[in-house]
């Protein structure tokens, strides 16, 4: 499908056409933009003049026609601070709609910050931990911080580069008095907003988004953007201080000669540098990572999620977003292909769609379809249902799949990216895999950081050998106490290991990256994978706890249905498992269901 996204900013109105498919990376098709500089059309009362209104309307009509001529099938249009803060912004939006038929969605400042954060989180991945995103626009400066898909706190302050330039710099070259007043104003405006953001936690990743930060990074020596978006770029405070002082003495024409600075933005880049420097000082950071994705990409990703999934939890609706956690809380529940074994991946997709699951978790096995990117992408597009998780072939029975141990994990990470999934699940090494086990904890982290893919290590259990419990996994079957960035918690494995899942989940805290929803009796050394609520594990209580924390991971239903009498009973069990997940994450007083299977599996890691 071809999607058109129209972005009305303070400086530029930009239409981007992309070819988008659920489970695949958006591919840019065409671009059409105008350096309208809408802020220049503001009068003394803060209203957009008739000339500005008409120029905007004319380009929106032009953009609409461009999208139609290029066979766009869907169209998103949004406006930020230039319209939001104009005294007659609502009237301008009505005028545009009546003349063009295009409804511009007006984003509030905290909504803008939250949607941008959503894109930044997707770019850097879960391995980035707690992210602080800074975004300097023409009219406002957005900040957002959080460790989930959406920020814990998001805020906007009127410190846009264009606004500050108009207010504080009268001529082409700023005077020392003007610079002193500008810096003082920025510090005063920033202080209370920064205090609110910092109260929500300390970031492990600080990112800068949008054109101002990209230009500043390029001025300070970052790689040219002709080299593509995947080249890491960093803005260092020491370099920024130096270049801010240099730009103070430059005219706009001289600044336009700097790398990464367009003539349209040359006058305001100095004010943007002051805001960036002041913000880095206020947060106490020496460098920030430049993210090529920002607000536009956040809205694109939101639309892709809507196309890919029936689940509201994976979408961001900017009309309702308040800059905090999403509401109401609804977990993302995936159906694992192992739940339909010995049936395959196609049958899992069919069952997931029929029952209303949000996605599919693919366990990579000897089944060729589970290994092939193009076949998995075909299933995603055919069923309009995403793959959320790739389970690497690290089980005992899949040791022959994809060769050596680290190759398995690397190929699983690559497959995760290719099909648009979010997480890789891996088992710890067996003790006889000594070289693999020797640096497993750090090795997983290295692969995760190199690929940008969240790799989550699953809890396992002891094996019974000659009547004695034997630890066959290294460093250990329990991830507790080990320095994994992300952990997958399996309730059946916990039952076999006689561990308390609720206590473990509480201990893991933000390191809990994924859940396998199942259960176990605790009376056998077998890995049973009972339906949730049919064993002894505190599954309901654990889900209720996760709901209370608004946990944003994926719940993968991984139950054994091999003992079902027929297809109807198998479907009933899978429906019950989904209902259990929904019920115990929507209220805190739910009781476990009664009745169902008590099938068992062997203690060979065959379930996942």
From TrEMBL:
Keywords: Hydrolase. CDD domains: ASKHA_NBD_MtPPX1-like. Residues 30-305 form the Ppx/GppA phosphatase N-terminal domain. The keyword Transmembrane helix does not apply. Residues 349-583 form the Xylose isomerase-like TIM barrel domain. One of its GO terms (molecular function) is pyrophosphatase activity. This is Ppx/GppA phosphatase.
């Amino acid at each position: 499908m071809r999607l058109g996204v129209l972005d009305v900013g303070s400086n530029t109105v930009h239409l981007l056409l992309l070819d988008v498919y659920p489970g695949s990376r958006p591919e840019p098709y065409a671009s059409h933009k105008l350096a309208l500089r809408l802020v220049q059309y503001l009068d003394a009362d803060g209203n957009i003049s008739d000339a500005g209104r008409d120029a905007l309307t004319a380009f929106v009509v032009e953009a609409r026609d461009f999208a139609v001529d290029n066979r766009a099938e869907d169209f998103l249009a949004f406006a930020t601070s230039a319209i939001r803060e104009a005294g007659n912004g609502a009237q301008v939006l009505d005028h545009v709609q009546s003349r063009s038929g295009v409804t511009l969605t007006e984003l509030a400042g905290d909504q803008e910050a939250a949607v941008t954060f959503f894109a930044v989180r997707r770019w850097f991945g879960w391995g980035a931990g707690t992210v602080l995103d800074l975004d300097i626009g023409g009219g406002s400066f957005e900040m957002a911080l959080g460790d989930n898909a959406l920020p814990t706190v998001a805020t906007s302050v009127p410190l846009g580069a264009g606004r500050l330039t108009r207010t504080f710099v009268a001529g082409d070259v700023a005077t020392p008095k003007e610079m002193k007043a500008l810096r003082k104003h920025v510090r005063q405006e920033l202080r209370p907003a920064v205090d609110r953001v910092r109260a929500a936690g300390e970031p492990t990743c600080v990112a800068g988004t949008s054109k101002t930060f990209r230009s500043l990074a390029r001025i300070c020596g970052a790689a040219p953007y002709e080299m593509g978006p995947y080249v890491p770029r960093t803005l260092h405070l020491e370099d920024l201080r130096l270049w801010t002082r240099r730009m103070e003495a430059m005219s706009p024409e001289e600044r336009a000669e700097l790398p990464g600075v367009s003539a349209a933005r040359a006058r305001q880049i100095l004010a943007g540098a002051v805001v960036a420097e002041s913000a880095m000082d206020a947060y106490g950071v020496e460098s920030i990572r430049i993210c090529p994705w920002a607000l536009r990409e956040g809205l694109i990703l939101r639309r892709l999620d809507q196309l890919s999934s029936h689940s509201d939890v994976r979408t961001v609706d900017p009309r309702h977003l308040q800059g905090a956690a999403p509401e109401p809380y609804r977990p993302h529940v995936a159906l694992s292909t192992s739940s339909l074994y010995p049936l395959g991946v196609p049958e899992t997709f069919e069952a997931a769609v029929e029952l209303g699951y949000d996605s599919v978790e693919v366990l990579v096995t000897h089944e060729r379809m589970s290994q092939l990117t193009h076949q998995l992408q075909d299933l995603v597009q055919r069923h309009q249902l995403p793959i959320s998780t790739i389970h690497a072939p690290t089980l005992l029975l899949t040791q022959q799949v994809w060769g050596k141990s680290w190759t398995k994990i690397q190929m699983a990470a690559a497959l995760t990216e290719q099909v648009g999934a979010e997480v890789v699940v891996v088992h710890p090494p067996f003790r006889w895999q000594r070289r693999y086990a020797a640096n497993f904890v750090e090795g997983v982290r290295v692969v995760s950081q190199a690929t940008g893919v969240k790799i989550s290590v699953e809890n396992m259990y002891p094996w019974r050998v000659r009547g004695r419990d034997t630890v066959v996994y290294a460093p250990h079957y329990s991830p507790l106490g080990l320095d994994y960035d992300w952990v997958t918690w399996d309730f059946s494995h916990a039952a076999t290991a006689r561990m308390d899942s609720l206590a473990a989940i509480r201990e893991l805290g933000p390191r809990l990256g994924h859940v396998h929803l199942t259960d176990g009796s605790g009376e056998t050394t077998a890995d049973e994978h009972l339906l949730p609520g049919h064993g002894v594990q505190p599954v309901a209580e654990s889900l209720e706890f996760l709901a209370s924390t608004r946990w944003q991971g994926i719940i993968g239903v991984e139950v054994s249905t091999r003992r079902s009498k027929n297809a109807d009973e198998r479907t009933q069990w899978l429906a019950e498992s989904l209902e259990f997940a929904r019920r115990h994450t929507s209220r805190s007083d739910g009781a476990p269901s009664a009745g169902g299977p008590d099938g068992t599996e062997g203690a060979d890691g065959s379930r996942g």
